[in-house]
Amino acid sequence: MQNKQQQQSDKVLVIGGGMGGIRTALDLAEAEKKVILVDKAYAIGGLMTQLDRTFPTNNCDLCTLSPGLSEGSRQEYIELLTMTSVKDVKGKKGNFTVSLETAPRYINLDKCTACGECHKKFPECVRFTPGLDHRAPTCMRYPQATPQAFSIDLAKCTDVEALMKSCPAGAINPDDMGRKREVTCGSIVFSPGGALFDPSYLDYLGYAAQADVVTSLEYERILSASGPTMGQLVRPSNGKKPKRVAWIQCIGSRGLQKGAGKHCSSACCMFALKEAIVTKERFQDDIETTIFYMDMRTMGKDYELYYLRAKNEFGVRFVRSRPHSILRENGAENLTLTYSSEESGANQTEEFDMVVLSTGFRVADDVKELAGKLGLELNAGSFPKTDAFNPVATSVPGIYVAGVIQAPKDIPETMVQASAAACMAGNDLGVVEKVEHEKELLPLETGVVGEEPRVGVFICDCGENIGAVVDAAALAEFAKTLPHVALAELKGHGCSRESMQQIQQAIKDEKLNRVVIGGCSPRTHEVKFQEVIRKAGLNKYLVEIANIRDQATWVHANNPAKATEKAKDLVRMAVGSVVRSQPLADHSLPMNKNVLVVGGGVTGMTTALQLADQGLKVYLAEKSAQLGGVAVKIRKTLEKGDVQAFVKDLVARTEAHANIQVIPRALIVDHSGMPGMFKTGMQTGKQMFYRQIEHGVTILATGAKPNRPAQYLLGESAAVSTQLDLQNFLEEQPEAVKSWDNVVMIQCVGSRTADNPNCSRICCQTAVKNALRIRELNPDARIFVLYRDMRTYGFQEEYYQKARELGVIFTRYSLDNPPRVEATGDMVDVTFTDLILGRTLTVSADHLCLSTGMVADEDSNNELAMIFKLPRTADGYFLEDHVKLRPVDLQVPGFFVAGTAHAPKLISESVAQALAVASRARTMLAKDSINLGARAARVDKNSCAACLICVRSCPFAIPFINADGYSEIDPAKCHGCGMCASACPAKAIQLMQFEDDRILAKLEELFERNFA
Amino acid sequence: MENFEPVIVAFCCHYCAYTAADMAGSQRLAYPANVKIIRVPCSSKVDALHLVKAFEKGADGVYVAGCLEGDCHFKNGNMRAARLVESVQKYLEEIGIERERLEMVMMSAGMGYRFAQVATEMTEKIRKLGPSSIHVALVGRESTLQPAGII
User: What is the pLDDT of residue A431?
Assistant: First the structure.
């Protein structure tokens, strides 16, 4: 055993450096595991780097993720190999040998400063791929590219010597031969992403012939500030602004066109909504946006609200139709779209200036080939096969998938799978003795106390986010006029690696001792910039961020003059405050590595087992007497996986695990402490004994409740059930089903309505699953599914198509004309309007089944949110920290959420989240101490009168009067709220980072402008 | 005092109100630019001194924004802040400043729309009330200059 472990490699190979691959690599590195990240492109970031903005926040998420890669502390664990492809894979789990081939870049990465001189002089020799016109303003793939370096296409270069001379850094090396090498790794994460369907050969769409017909990704490039038109929305044919733009959904998806995949691509509906909203945001009523669609599939968390906003707030027009053709009449300027709408049925034509094709995902040919080399079993669409109960594991042990390659999906789900894959891949590594890594040597902190403040102000334009509303250059000029400001500069993206280096250089060159960043929110970027200035030799608390994006340009875009005035105020306030900042030291405490998992369903048990297997002590608190949760009531998955057997196995392993302590009938009653040292009190067992648990992280896996709204005779007629009841009935009384003539299912009961606006996500596939089962039992039964939009995303689409082929009748109804039901003896009469026939029909149903979906468990979530201080969505689910990039991290550090406590989802998706939180928790628990920061109350003993007001005001009873007769506050115990500081009548207490003089300075500066 | 543009200070707690303000940003929910946010770790960090100082400097309105009742990350900081606001309101009245110019509001981190709504309502209310008497006095004192606050 000992021997075997020594043979195991201690590295994970991640293939593909898109959003998913980056997340996997970062998770593993933060958990102190070694990673080799390979990408065939010359900069990582994948598809995401070509997007202008992402839904639903409509901001550029790359700015949030990419700085993470440049962090030195993580680089010691991540070896990044760009322009590298995988040639061969040998060996097995624990010990793979992989042949890699790196193509020549002809640029020495260590020397290149990405100054752009080579591209200026020899644009044809420098590689650039994303977008429409192959020449964007910069030939870096995107402004925050990693690695921050160009790439030369030597074949296109006629004068190599002149090209070499153009580089001031001498970084161009025409003799670069590339490199072949073999690496060993214990496990492999395969996340090459998806390719997009190419509609060129479908002549009726006019894509190849008409410049104004673009794909959704090309449209994205047109909108992007770093795209070929610098963010100007213009028609490719004539450079004029379009007045009418149409989107056509499902191009290359749902088996619609020749060569299209059978699956639904899952992300395109949201993608089109986002593009339409961004277009509307920029031009309001000057532009008309129309989306042609079959089913609007907005099944993600709060996505339905986004859809409703597009429709109701932004006035995006929706036409349920599959257009027949896109043509341009001879000599005409506009495109003519021919379609038949649901209402009229007849063909009609309409003119548009631009048409966007929402092209779906497919597996690229080279990826398919690589999957073959890895030995992966593939499905009909060439996606690697996975199992619903282990959604990131492939047919080959030790090889995991994440992202679009597993099944078409959007960014948040990709991030979840990326963390899940990191969890699984990390498990396969040999046990590594933890070695004390040499800490990156930080320069000594420059003394600033008593020195005259010299403030450097750096203003970001953040692409269009700030720069399109306020004149960022003028704002930087304004900052120069402020007292103590030694330097003020404009930075494109202050968070790009290049800008961060420039800021550090400026600190050294200009002897700056304070820094102000005018940019986004300190909530997301304060830590980043603290790190930047610390590396330049300044104490990290000498920086302040003026939030001119989230709290000025984003909210005052309609009034640039006022936004500019406010941005000036915010910068002035930040400068006034930062000159009063003082160097502070962080406090730290040892990390408690125990984990509390709340909720003993599939999600909670899966997470607990993963963490326990890694040697962590897990307390699994379950409010009921048994483990299993809602899954206990589910028989089969859509793919016919046996849920009962799966749950039984989970329960048995959880109960038997030495590192897991299951606490049944647990009611959480109190909670205190901070990340890494929480204390949670609970009453347990029948006697409700109180016990307290000390733990470092908390994972919420509390699930959701099956909904049972009292509608459509549910609970009144024996012939009416929910889908959950029905699937049990189908197994328990199959004979009864055989006598049914008519079965009706009604979708969206209690979901997508005014009082519960979101989609429950699972019901469409449940209806298809149960309809198929009824078909099996009784091939003669007529089955009607009354739906609003069929949301069988991903590979579920194939089951939906199968159900249609087998004669299940899918009929749409609209929210303003729902089906009507009437009990007639043992039967139920269901009356509905068939929109295509234009007739009202009544079906006398033997059984009426309602797709009631899920709702948040209001009672327990409300209680837990109060005790743990966690924010929730309007519909009662826990609100994650970042809906796209940190989907399982909660806003309070040390808290994570997984499963249906996050939003309605399938078992496979809950398992993926369960694995993901295990990975996220490990990134935190890998550390031995907790940094408490410096925000603590400090007492000036000379001013303290020992009046006890602080002792009484502190909510955590930290201050006490010490032997010397003044108040003492232990900074390691202080929570940093500042209550004592505001209560102290002598002002003897100051809260570090939020000292009174800094708050008052902000007021002074704010009113300086107004009254001076 | 036509086209009076009030200056309003919002002390926002980091965990809820400040996050809600960012949320309003990411959802692009417009609100008047008159509201200027000062971030504090907890609404209870706001001191009578800060509130009074804001009015002394010429603020036309001030509000403290904390977490919803029961949601405070420091147990009861928001309730303490609410009590403080109430006592400062009384004091303001004594010195001739309408109590309505100071308010305590509560919201959760997810309530971007509520942040925008509060900012809009507060601005409208103060616009109706007109400039604060200190604002008027400051303008009088500096009558040779045209302050940007009143156009």
Answer: 63
